[in-house]
Amino acid sequence: MRAELVRVSLHQVDIKVVTGDDEMHVLQWRRNLIWDEVLLDGKRQAHSSGFGREKVYGLVFDKRPDGSGGTKVMLLLDPSTSYGNWGNPHQQLAGVRLETAEGPIVAFGTLDPKNLEKPATFSDWMKKTMGMDWGDTNRPN
Length: 141
Hints:
By secondary structure, this protein is mainly beta.
C-alpha cells in the first residue's frame, strides 16, 4: 500500500491511496461548521461533531465480503493552525499522517516522524527552529 497527499488546506485533506492490487482510492477529510467527516471514494466512513471533535480515524482497505482480512490504516490529523496567519488564504492544517501497522505511509507537518527527532547539535537545533545555517563546518571561525 502506498499513499500521496493531493491537497492539504484548512478544511480539506485529500489523499490518493493505492492498495496492493493496484486499485486507487481517494481518502478525504472535510471540516464543516459543526462536524468533520472522512470519505472514502466519496462515501462517508466516519464523522465527528461538536467542539471536541475526533482527530484519529480507523479504516480497513480490501476487506473481504464476510468482514475478515484487509489492511487496517489509521488517519491522524492535527487541525491546529498558526494564530499569526489567520488572514493568509493558503493556511492549512498543522499535520496529517496515514499509517499502517508497519509504519507511516504518508506524513506531513507536525505529525511527520522527522519532526519528533531531537537535533544532535546546537547547529542542527538552530537550523530546525530558526532556519539559520552557520555555513561550512570545515572552515575555522
